[in-house]
Specification:
about 120 residues; mainly beta; Surface presentation of antigens (SPOA); 5-stranded antiparallel beta sheet; 5 strands
Length: about 120
Amino acid sequence: MEAQNGTEATPLPIEAPGVPTAQTPIGDLPKVLKPKHPSGRLDPIHDIPVKVQAVLGRSRMTVAELVSLGANDVIELDRKVGEPVDVFVNNRLIARGEVVMVDKLLGVTLTEIVKQED
């Protein structure tokens, strides 16, 4: 597996109880994601916004193909149905997961954490 920055990425399966998923209710997150430092040294960073993306797949096309797209057109992606989706935080691959339904909305259950090699 190759991470976005060209280094090898090793997936780590998530099998620990209490690991938040797309199905973890928002109200339960503070109970699940407790700071690891009892002194609260990480409290100042808890409100920093991050960009989270779940990528179903990718496709390449020309500008002409792009502008000719219309309603009900299908864009073929580079993944098969059932393959894991990549989860990026601030454009860095951090996990893979499965698409799930959460109260009639789409979500992602994390199935593995990707460890970045230095």
